[in-house]
Amino acid sequence: MAAAHRQTRQPDQRHLEALAGFFHVSPAYFFDDRPEEIVAELALLEALRDAGVRNMALRAVELSPEALDTVSDVIETIARREAARGKPSP
After folding, report:
1. Residue 6 carries which DSSP code?
2. CA–CA separation, 24 and 72 (whole Å)
3. Which of 5, 17, 54, 74 has the fewest CB atoms within 10 Å, measured from its CB?
């Protein structure tokens, strides 16, 4: 019987590897039971849809580790100030 007519359809390893490659994740991603990590990854992907965030991320790729630490510190400082003023986090 053809695979399309079977009662249960499950992707084979080749399909999972293709999906994982498309989404830039490990094939284990589809089996891991870590909802909090998945939610965090989805939030990151949503943030990267924002053109400004994406532009900053692309520019950051060229920075040294020390410069990235500095940028991270500045962002954290700004986020704390905004939180203190009652501005919601994205």
Report:
1. S
2. 24
3. 5
